[in-house]
Amino acid sequence: MQFKMIQPDDCHLHVRSGAALKSIIGMTVAQMGRAIIMPNLNSPVTNATQARIYKEEILSVLPKGSKFNPLMVLYLTDNTTSKDIQEAIDSGVVAAKLYPVGVTTNSDGGVTNITKLYPTLESMQKLGMLLLMHGEVTRNEVDIFDREAVFIDEVLNQVVNNFPELKIVFEHITTKDAVDFVLTSHHKIAATITPHHLLANRNDMLVGGIKPHYFCLPVLKRKNPHQLALLYAATSGNTKFFLGTDSAPHAKTDKESACGCAGIFTAHCAIELYATAFERQNALDKLEGFASKFGADFYNLPHNTQTITLKKQDWVVPASYPFAHSDIVPFMATKTLGWKLI
Ligand code: NCD
Ligand code: ZN
């Protein structure tokens, strides 16, 4: 059995830079027409010039003849101005990303208090620039498993109420609270869902020994009700939920460490992972909308004109891939998957 679908877009992707970028970009290019490129480099992408330089770097390492289109994102800081937003828009940047300070990899320069940025959000609303949010609070007293739900109460509600015309993507949602929030909010609020949050829960990370390759942020939650709510949302056909892998490569040694980095690498077989999840829900007919239409529609982009073909075929995910000057352990390493991109 095999089926064709419109080529997907990855609406949340980390590709890094330099040697790391070179070693992994081909995997995304083989699957996706476009990707929304996350700006959390070691030196974050905080202005239009840096976005242009980063885009040029990505384009320069694409395989010959590739039509892959990296769509750039601005990293918001306490100092991002309306002028920065205007300049970013003028140079083709499609969105700006909120990282609460300290929330995840390379977020030290993130935003300390969103209300300080309200004038900038006002401009984004006026200019039609999307706001992408890493939706977790970072206060030490808030339990890591509750940080997304608390973010909805303390931050997201206020932003949505204060900026009713602002388009927001609640990134890599992980809880039923987030699903319910998106379902009950207006049409300018959407969310990305990762393949690992559909296929795994915190037991996969913690039962039988701690598994660093299942550690990401926001951290995997309980199966019931959270993973089940995400599966429901992704396969519902609701246009507010779309594909964003949050593939976040880190070298094997940086993951298998006393203080392992957050991030799960899924770019090697992103669409196969989603197909696996959708098939389990008996909803393969809903995959194309989620993967190839709803994200593009939300970003006001045309659908891709190419198609991809997925074949029902068992294959074993490699134990590792080369990554920069070392190697990386991919999600589902050594496990058998039932779908293959051909
Ligand atoms: C991401 C990374 O490594 O850049 N890590 C992760 O666990 N998802 C950053 C992020 O999106 O939080
Ligand atoms: Zn991310």
TrEMBL record:
CDD domains: DHOase. Coiled coil: none annotated. Its EC number is 3.5.2.3. Zn(2+) 2 binds at residues 97, 134, 172. Its cofactor is Zn(2+). It catalyses: (S)-dihydroorotate + H2O = N-carbamoyl-L-aspartate + H(+). The modification N6-carboxylysine is found at residue 97. Belongs to the metallo-dependent hydrolases superfamily. DHOase family. Class II DHOase subfamily. Zn(2+) 1 binds at residues 12, 14, 97, 246. Homodimer. It comes from the Bacteria. GO terms for biological process: 'de novo' pyrimidine nucleobase biosynthetic process; 'de novo' UMP biosynthetic process. GO terms for molecular function: dihydroorotase activity; zinc ion binding. InterPro entries: DHOdimr, Dihydroorotase_CS, Metal_Hydrolase. One of its GO terms (cellular component) is cytosol. Keywords: Hydrolase, Metal-binding, Pyrimidine biosynthesis, Zinc. It comes from Candidatus Ruthia endofausta. Binds 2 Zn(2+) ions per subunit. Catalyzes the reversible cyclization of carbamoyl aspartate to dihydroorotate. Substrate binds at residues 14-16, 40, 134, 217, 250, 262. It is an enzyme of class 3 (hydrolase). This is Dihydroorotase. The active site is at 246. Pathway: Pyrimidine metabolism; UMP biosynthesis via de novo pathway; (S)-dihydroorotate from bicarbonate: step 3/3.
